[in-house]
Every structure is written in structure tokens, then in C-alpha cells.
Batch of 3 targets.
Target 1
Amino acid sequence: MSFTYPWFLVGLLAISIPIAIHLFELRRPQRILFTNVEFIREVKLVTARQRKLKHLLVLLARISFISFLVFLFAQPFIPAPEQRSQQGAVNVLVDNSASMQQVGISDHLLVEDAIQEASELPLAFSSGARFALVGNNQGVGSGEAYRAAVQAIQITGQNLSMNAQLSQGLDQAARTNGPLFLFSDFQKNSFSQQQLTSLDSSQQVFLVPLAGKATANVFVDSVWLDDAFVRANTDITLRVRLRNGGAQTSTDCPVKVFVGKQQAAVFRVPVPAHQTTTSMVKVRLTDKWLQECRVEVEDSPVDFDNTYYFTLQPAAQIRVVEVANEGLMAQLYNNEPLFTYQHLAPRTGDYRGLERANLILLREATEVSAGLREKIQEAVQRGATIVIVPAATASHDSYTALFRTIGVGAVQWEPTKGGVPPLRDVAAPNRQNPFFQDVFAGQNRPAVMPKAAPVLSWSRSGTEILRLRDGDDFLAGFSSGKGVVYLFASPFSNGYSDFTRHALFVPVMYRLAMQSYQQEQQPAYRLNQRTLSVRLPDAISTGEESIFKLTSDSAEYIPSQRVQGARVVLDIPPGMRTPGFYTLTRAGQPVLKMAFNFDKHESDLTSYSAAELKQLIGSNRPNIRVYETGGGQSVAAQYKATRVGVPLWRYCLLGALLCLLAEGILLRVRGRQKVAPVAQAA
């Protein structure tokens, strides 16, 4: 046994006080008269023995009371087998990710159990111990301040991964020279023991896994459309992929799909444990405006991920700009309301029409000026698609400079020895190529393919779209900046190609334009995305200096932001924790409606148990310990028993009180047993 304050043991000298009182107590003899003197000897003998025994018991009670009182102030304790001196602050990391909303063995949410266990930690340390909550900007504080910070913890969808949080906690523990307590469900998709294996042996880490009840957890993994171009008043095929992140099978899960405020579809589907299933529903947009959509899954008891939010809006028109001497493509693109067409002459000098073009078709220009080359470079850098059709008689140097500027290298001009080079057959398209997806719609391949006389050739560094039968490329794509450059090997003019008169011409040119389409925003985002980029509508001027804000109901957030051309890059604010719909505003005016959801990895409830964690860590790392919960003993009690010791001051207090009670009982009994005085005989 050891003492926290051993100098209080000097108080044991006070034991001499009741001993001295007992030895030197002077009592006035009491005269008792008896009518029969034969009993005097017997009465004197009995009362003397009883009085001596009672005096000794009272003395023992008083000595014991003083001893227990001194021990109470000295605070004795039984040393723990793994006791260490606590010097630095106690660091605590409480996982407040969305997965902590599952129900635990205690029938409470895991985050509630974690908060309860973490709040009791100060009981395992001395009153002067300092605590630091990882992720809390308040730094090191007292036990009371730490408890208040723990009680204020809320679930958030913006957590770092568990590995990132662990790294942050270990860094803080190293700075404060103290142990780290980690309360989490330890999901297998986010926790790795690699960081723990490289720890210094002096760094103490205590893992507290919180286990949830085995259950099914069906959630929406993703939604997508078969057609990237959403048209109003047309049936749209929406595919919904459901995943079961729980340990049990959901045999009949109800699912509802809402478009705006109307229910668009309802169905039931079984989802096996740890498996996915994809369902197809038909939805329709009745106007051109963006619609707030959601998929609701009726799944309990884990319900934090039962709603998936997304947006749908009819596609905007694709802006096609043809740079050529004459507008050959006008009729082609004007026939389809999906496109807007504009023609520019190569030598116009005014290329402002290229600034917001989705597709720039540079067709058979004899020379590419420096101004046109600069505008094409700017367009491809912001994500536009460039289609280049070479001219039969072109300035090789200007084209070579263009290829170099936009990053299309190794392009060579075919030598011509007078006249038109021989025509070569174009090979049939490969239907497995994603470029031709849904182009043929079950039709047979064209029996007769077009012919072409290439004037350009290049290495196989691009993505092949169409090739000649002899193996050379006829049409290929090259990534450049944020956009794509498509290059034809031959001109479209008569004598060099009959491609414009072939059945492939229209679908290929439409497909090139469709490939250039970029949505202004994604249907849905995740709250854990650190950064996102959205394309601003044409009506929004990028020159204004007003601040973009994200609003939802009465909540308003100002994200870090930077405008890059026609796009704005936003950093999701740390305080934005709740999934749902948010409006991007500027100067009080709505710009975009955006949907945010929890990270889908949080819905996978597969976690490490305490036994699995111990197996992962191994027995050769005594500085890492795993505490189990749910056994009737708190983490604080377990830590105190193994690291701090068993305090005995409570027993000393109880002993002192019992001694006082015993003394009172002895004195009361002694008073009752006094012999009553007898009157003197005459």
C-alpha cells in the first residue's frame, strides 16, 4: 500500500491524546449503599471488570477513528501492476462520424456511449490532471472544461478518415507528452493499424471499440441516368443502386423515389448482407427548372442514411462554334434543339464567341492565326472540346504551332507528290468503344464504309475512335488541359473524303458535340468532400466581387472560394454537417441548388471487435492497450485498476464513521448499565 500524501501520517501522533485521557482519567467515587453487605465484594468485582472492558473498547474506537481520519487525508492506494507517472495532458479522440449513430449493445447510440465513457475519464486521474480533446481548438484544459467539451460533441458528416484522425491525435499526444484515448467503432474501411505499428514504445495509446448490434443497413450507394442529356416532358431512366452495409439480410426493403414534392416511384427489393442491387425506375421532369429529388429507404434501426438527396435538371443546350470559311455544319446542328450553332470566319479577329463554346470545330482553315490559337488554348484549358479537320492546302507551320500549344504532339503531315493522295477505306467502328455506346441502337454495321485520303498521321498516343483498314488512325482523341482534342486525318472536302455523305457522319458529329457537354454541377455531393468545383451559369458574371454563400433554411455558411474562369471552387465549411439541399447564393441571389449526403463509407457498419483489434496489434506492443466496454466496468475504472491503482480513501472514511458509531453505542450502553444508587439504611 502507498500513500498519495504521506506527510499526513504525522497526524498519527494524535493517538496519544485518547490514550493519555484513558490513563489519567480521574473519576469521583460514587457511594452506593447496600442493605446486605454480603454482596459488596461480588458487586465490586463485577462492575470493575465491566468498566475496564468498556473503557478499553471506547479507547480502541477512538484510536481507530483518529487512525482512519489520518489515513483519509493521506489517501492510501494499492499500486497498479502497470502504474506510470502521469506528466503530460491526457488526449482524447471521440469519433463523431455518421456511423456512430448506430445502436450499441447498451441500446443507446454509439456516440452517446462514447461521450459517457469519455466524460468519466477525469475520475481515473488526479484532480490536477489536464485534458485535451482532439479536434477541439480550446487546447489543454481542466477536467471540468474537458467534460463540457465532450458533452458538446455532435455528429458531423465532415470527418476526416479514421486514419487521418488517428494521425492527428498521435501528433497532439506527442506534443503534449501524454497518452491518447480513442473511442470509435473502428470501421474496417477506414481504420488501419499501420500507424500504430510505427509508434515509439513510450507513446501510450488506449483503444476503446464500441460495438453496434448486428442488423441490416440498406442505403443508397449511387444514382445515375442512362442518358446524360435530361429532356423535359420525357421519360428518364433512373437507376438506383442499393447496398446493404449491415451483417443481416434485408428481405423486403421499401424504397420511394421523389421528384420535387411528388412521389415518382415506389418498390420493394431484397438486399443481401454486404451486397448491392440495382433497380430501374422511370421519372419525368415537367419543366426546365432544377428539381430537388430524393430516394428514401425505410430501414431501421440505423436510419441516418435512409435518405439520399440529388438534383435533376433538363440539360442546357450545347454551344457549337464552327470556325471555317463557310458554315457547312449549320443545317446539321440546327436540326436538333439540343444544340445552338454559331459560325465564325478564321480571319474575323473577333473570337469572343469561343469563350463559352462547348464544342469548337476548326474545319479546313488554311491558316491558324496567333489570336485564334490563343483562344483555342484558353477554351481547352477550361474544359471545351476541340475538333480539328485539316485543310488540303494549309500552312503547316501554323497548324504545327497549334498542335504544340494544345499539347497534341507527334503529328506529321503526309507527303503529297502532286494531286490528291489515294483514297483508303475506313474500317468499321468498334461497337465496344464507349464513344459508340447506343449509337447503332441494335442496327447492323454499315456494309459500305467511307473512304478518306489522310493528310495527317500521328503516333498511337491518343484514344482511337475510327481507323483505316490498314491500321492508321482516321479519328482520335487527345486529352488536353481539362478538355479533349479530336483530330481527323483528312479534310472533309470532295476528293479527300466522302465521310460527310456517309451514314456515320451525323452520329459521329453529334457524339463529338455530346462528349463536349459538361454539367454545371453534379447531381449530388458528399459532405466529406474537402473541395468541389461547379460551373457557373451564363447569367452569372465572374467579374463581380460578391461572396458566394451556401444556405439551407436559416443556416448560412461562407466557404473558402476562388473563381477560375467560368467555374468557382469551394471548400466545404467545417460547420456544414447536415445532409440535404443547399443553395449557392451570390449577393442574396440564388445561383445553384446543390445536394449533399453523408459519405457512403460511413454506412458500411463492418467494424473491428475488441478481440480483432488485440489480434491486429499483437502481444509485443505493451504501449497499446484495448479496453472492452459493456462488461459492467467503465473505461475509467479499467484504466484506474491497471494504470493508476485502487484508491482506499473511501474505505478510510467509512471506517472513521463506523468508529464514531461504535463509540456512541458503547457510551450509550454503558450509561444504561450503571447501577442505580440505593438509599442508606437507618
Target 2
Amino acid sequence: MSSDISGRKRKGTGGIFSVFREQEAGLRRFLRRISPSSSDIDDITQETILRALQAEREREILQPKAYLYTIARNVVRDSLDKKSRSVIDFIEDFAPETVSSNEPLVEDQVDGRQRMLLFWEAVATLPEQCQQVFVLKKVYGYSHAEISKELGISVSTTEKHVAAGLRRCSEFLDKRSVRFGKESESASLQG
């Protein structure tokens, strides 16, 4: 493998893979902390190294360790985004009014989507660990014990995060509902 005067690996020389091999155990520990599902860690790890190798072919990676962790975090986010979209699609596909009626109202679909987007906006305002606990509980249906085991925290801490997440999300949504209500009223008065 060739390297420049500073000792950094040049573009396309495979340096990222050797850093990956050195960091794999630590990367997996990191993923266990940030990924809602431990069963996805192998897939996320594989996707991380694949993306890193592709990037290395295109450009020089100056800080390969930090780059690997950044990619891993992005892969987890992408995975959560896909799962969130599938949850939204599932909810919309099987909403009672959609199933019982042959012609669902467009307004109901738009309203449901807006409410779901507001929910995720509220979740995004939570501190990181509170957000992880809240999503595992409310979106994925984990028990407090499962969340505790998954994240390596006590059941009591899990319960506190769920309660705090509920309270903060409710407050966020209450504030938004009031604002949207006022906008709707003023729009109907003008129209």
C-alpha cells in the first residue's frame, strides 16, 4: 500500500478496511448503543464498511476512524427513516376509515400525515437517550425491561425517559395544535 509523506493512506489504497478491522469491536459497541435493534447490527456494520470502501475509491479519507463512525450513525438513521416511513404507510393503509370506505378522504390522509410529521418533530426535540427510549417504547413496542437491556440502563431510568418523552412530546404537540388551530380559523375567516 502506498502512502504520502504524512503517513496517511492515499485514495483507493484500502486503508479504510484496515482501520475498520482495528475498530470493528468498538464500532459494534457503538451501534448497540444507538441502534434500536441489536438484530440489525450485522447489517448496519456491513453497510458501513461497504459505503466506506466506495467512498475511499472516490476520495482520500483523512480521518478514517471518525469517518466510519459517521457512516455508521448515518446508516442507523437511514434504517430508522425507512422503518418510520413503513410505520406511517402501514398506519395510513389500515386506518379504520380507509378500510371501511372505498373512497378515503384526501383531507384525512393529509391530516394524518401532518400529525405523524408533527409527532416525529416532537420526538426530534427530545434529548438523545430519552429519544431512543421513547421510540423503542412507543414506535417499536419494546417493554421497559427490553429497553433497559438493549440500552444498558436501569428499568427506572427507562420509565423516567418514557414519562419525560410523553410529557415533552405532549407539550410540543399541544403548542403546535393551538397554532395550527388559529391559522385554520383565520384562513376560514378570510376564505
Target 3
Amino acid sequence: MNGRSSSVSLGKQLLKRFPIILTARKLSKMVKEKEKFFMRSFMVTKRKRIGTLLLCAIGAAIFFWALNNEQGEGSQQVNSVQNNNVNESIVSLTSNLALPPPLPSQFLGYTLPPGHPCNSFTLPPPPADKKRTGPRPCPVCYLPLDEAIALMPKFPSPSPVLQNLTFIHEEPLRRDGEFGGSDFGGYPTLKQRTYSHTIQPSMNIHCGFVRGTKPGRNTGFDMDEDDLVYMEQCTGVVVASYIFGNFDDINEPSNISDYSKKTVCFLMFIDEETEKYQRSTGRLDSSKKVGVWRVIVTRNPPYTDGRRTGKIPKLLIHRMTPNARYAICIDGKLELLVDPYRILERFLWRKNATFAISRHYKRFDVFVEAEANKAAGKYDNASIDFQIEFYKKEGLTPYTEDKYPIISDVPEGCVIVRELIPISNLFTCLWFNEVDRFTSRDQISFSTVRDKLLSQVDFHFNMFQDCERRNFVVQKYHREVLERIKALNATRSQPLSPPPPSPLPPPPPLLISPHVMADPQQQWKDWRLPSMYNRKVFPGNGDTGAT
């Protein structure tokens, strides 16, 4: 018992002198087996001092070896914990730093640098010469082309509220509408019309091309497949024009840069009648190019009125170029005089606008515009009256200065500059629906659609002066007028025929001697010559022609 107790006490002393450093991890299986082996050997040789001392030495060596291994593993664990702590500290420090905000994914506008000439630019006063009255162009402060291109937004402008706009496709076509409409634009009910005027985050509305699988394919206003593919590849700027009924000649733009010729899609929409004439003159061939214009022939026109058909490319260009970002739409009677990038910078980007149109040069009020259309025979008077009365019931009032900053209710709709984002596309869709339901006079329906949308959101609408519009487009004569002018000029250029010979002077009067008396027995005869019965009167000769 004494030997056993002494061996136990010796083991306790060894444990006190060489304590085992415990870690969070358990000792390995090999270390535990060595401990068991040491204790058994110690019990067997407990009565032999030499054996006991030997076992103690071996045990001490084993413990030192195990201690070194555990310290190595513990140091790895400590290093891991320290690394985790360092990483957490870095994350905490990073989160507390005031990092710069991320780059915006939307275009929010810009201002020109201080001192820029365009910041202080003002329109000159009207000419003092009273004889020079009427509409005319005025100066516009454009940026140089390279600066305008550099300022082109990399991101689209925000579309307030409306984020997703889709379009109704009906097959078979429903005809539930109370009045108006067409097979091309559909027959929306008045309830659907009211719904489409209420802006929501996601909307599905009528916007032309209601039949067929894709705009331009069996929808009316059909186009060749290669033209549809070409328009889908337009991803930047589009300039669109249109001629229907062979009413105008193709006007080629001027002052267009090489950069624009490479990057801008110039689309000229014509019908088959216009195509036939253009081919007969030799201007249009199989290349489908006239200058910078890509000529797109449309077939199966949805309307017999070419003016109404022209509203399709004018207002629904986003349906045919779904990947484009900006569009400038001009009437076929106009010639573009300024590079498209400079126009976009001046009237959209610098103004942080998504839709730009000029005011009418003379009229501000829809009621006055309607009466002017009736007086000029622009459309059936009863149809104009019906449309005005309908709008009056919806709240249309005459234009007053209380609407400022809106400067007019009547646009000059021959030019539209816009960004192709959902809210802008919604506006032109609704505008087209009014043209499809009522008269084709888009000046009458413009303010009704505009005011309904502006009462809900601000989609950055810009109405500029008519004289500014006349700075970058010039109006040409219609084709028939040009042909009459050419014919008149050709007549004037022919040599004049010689003037007719001067008439002979009248013969001298016959002198009758007073001494010669007629025989009273002879029958009276007129003594005048036959040529004297029809004498002409020549001014200045004192002859009155009286006998």
C-alpha cells in the first residue's frame, strides 16, 4: 500500500510540475494511448526505484512531446481565430467608412460649365421692319458636334411610375368600341380608354398593330422582312420621315456628319404609289437608298387617308424600332438642316427632357385651331365639332396664361424629338389612339392627352418656340407645286416670238370739192371705202372712231 501510495503521490507531483495545457480541442488518440501505457508501466515497477525513475523520465519525455504537438495545433487555431478577427475588423471598418455612392443607372441631366456662351444666350428681338412679318427662323445655341456626342447619356432617363409598357394584340379582332377605331388600331371601349389614361407601374394598352405576330407582319402597314431586321438593329438614334400618296419629294438632309451617317438610322417610309414614282425618276433602285435615307416601302395601308397613315411612323416609331433610344420624326415636306446629335443635345439632354415639340407659330388655343381647320376645309366639319364637344365634356377649356409654364395647347406637329422610354411611348400611343378614334388632325387631340398625363407625373415635357424649329428644318413645296413651278420656269426660259407687225396707219380722208355737186336725180351711195367701216382707235392719234 505504501509503495502504491508513493507511486501515486509521485505521479501527482509530476503532474503539478508539468501541467497539461488543455485546449479547446481534445488530445489526439495517440497521446491518450501513451498515457495509459505509462500508468500501467508505473504500476508494474512501483517497487523498484530505478524502474520508477526510468518510467518518470520516459513519461516526462512523452509529455514534453505531446505538449509541443498540442501547442502547434493550438497555435494554428489561434492564428485562425486571429485571422477571423482581423477580417471582421476590416469589414467593420469598411462599413463605417463614407464610401462614394455608386454610379447612377439613370440619366439625371447636366448643366453646362459656368461661363459657357449658351448659358447667357437669348433670342434677339423681332425685326423692326414691319414688312418682314410672319414666321421665320431664329438663332439657336447648339454645341459643337464633338461636344454634343460626348454628352450623349449612357443611361436612359427615369420613367416616372410606369416601368413596363406592353401592347394589346387581338386575334380575332374585337369590335366592342362605342365609336371610332380601326382594324389597325383596334376598337378600344371608352372604359379601356379611361384605363389607359391612368398611369400604373405596368400597363397593357392599344397602340396600333393589334393584328399579326409582329408590327409590320400581316398587321397592315406591312414591310419587307429585311427592313424589319434592319430596324431592329437600330440601337441608338433614329431619324424618321414619311411620304404617302406621292404628295412630296424625298428631301435629303444636309450638314450631316460622317459620324451620324455611320451611327444614325435614317428611315424614309413610303407607300407603293410613291415608290413607283421614285423608281420612274431613277432616284430609287434595288439598294433601297436615297442619299442617307433607307427607303422602306409599306404595303396594305390601313387607311385611305394618307395624312392618317402618316401618323403611324410619326407617333409609333418605337413599335418598329424597339431597341432604339432616341427618335427625331419629321414630315416628308421638311428638309433637315442640323446634325441629329446637336438637335438632341439642345432640345432633350440639356433640358433634361424626354419629349420635345414646338408650339404653333400663330395659334395657342384648341378651339381656335378647330375653327381654323374647318375654315380651311382640312377635315369634315361635323367630325371636328363632335371631337371638340367630346373633349369639352371631359373638361377641355380655352388656353390661358394660367397654364404657364405650358406655353401653348396647339403644337406644330411636323417635328417631334423624344427619348424612347415607357412614359414617352405611352404618350404617343395615347395620342395615336385619339387620332385613330377621332379626326386625323393631331393638333386638336394633343393637349387632351398631354394634360391627362401631366396631371399625374412629370415626364419632362419641353415645348420650344416655332422659330427654333425653323432653325433646323426648312419646309419645301409639295411635289405637285414643285412640278408647276418647274413647268412655269421652263416656259419662261423659252425665247419669245417676234411681236406682231404694227397696224397700218389709216388712209387719208377723201377731199370732196365743194364745187362738185351730186346729181339729185342719182340714187345716194356711200362714198366711204370698205376698209373704213372697221377702223381701230389708236391712243394718241385723236381718233375716236366716230364717223
